[in-house]
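[job 4471] stage=fold_predict status=RUNNING
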Amino acid sequence: MGLVALVNTHSTVDKVRNFLTEEFTHLVVKAGYSMVQVQSPNMSGLIKAATTSNNVERGMIDHMDAQRIVPEVVGAIYRCPEPYSKILKLVYLQQLPEKLVLDQLPYERAQYYRLKFKSLLWFADSYERITDFHVYS
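[job 4471] inference complete, writing structure tokens
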């Protein structure tokens, strides 16, 4: 039995979804970017020169970390194969409502939700070298 079989897919998807819906938007703001900049496929536009930042409360991601993390998240989304990267871009970068995402994709609702679930697993794999979101059984 391989390592993939040890991954708790539902818990992993929950962890990734929480990161992309809750934490990522805060990181974008903290890094000094806008969601419009993040939507651009031109990653070089996101990488800014390092600046000095004040010490922040213990346990919080500081400005420098956010500037490093945001381009990594966007890159991980773009590294996922189609149709998974397209779903991730529409839902988490463009932040379109579910109905508009469904209108832009050639899938029935049930198939879309299966693909969205898989897209979050693909993101976990793509982002693993930075942070491992996988939950192991």
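[job 4471] summary: The longest helix spans residues 9-31.
[job 4471] exit 0
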